[in-house]
Specification:
The protein has a domain of about 55 residues. It contains two helices and no strands. Bound molecules: zinc ion. The site of zinc ion (ZN) has 7 residues, from helix 2.
């Protein structure tokens, strides 16, 4: 599946960045991130039409990216505030 790119350089890199504490978690979460992108109507391209964006899979992807970078958030939906992966 082609991967849409975010504007503004907010797309996390495919390869684990410097400081990544778990390359396995990063790669799994990054794949999940790529698979659950919003479409032009705001719905996840994979989960439509049943789930609003961000879908659960995208929330888990964001949480995984943050976890791979050593961040421990209390809730998955709070893990990527400001996209600090
Ligand atoms: Zn989704």
């Amino acid at each position: 599946m082609p991967e849409p790119l975010n504007a503004g350089g907010q797309t996390p890199p495919i390869e684990p960045p410097t400081g990544c504490t778990s390359t396995l978690i990063w790669r799994l979460a990054r794949r999940l991130y790529a698979d659950h992108q919003p479409g032009p109507d705001g719905w996840c391209l994979n989960c439509r039409p049943a789930i609003l964006y961000p879908c659960v899979a995208r929330q888990l992807a964001d949480f995984g990216l943050a976890t791979a970078m050593g961040h421990t958030a209390a809730a998955p939906h709070l893990a990527n505030k400001g996209h600090h992966w």
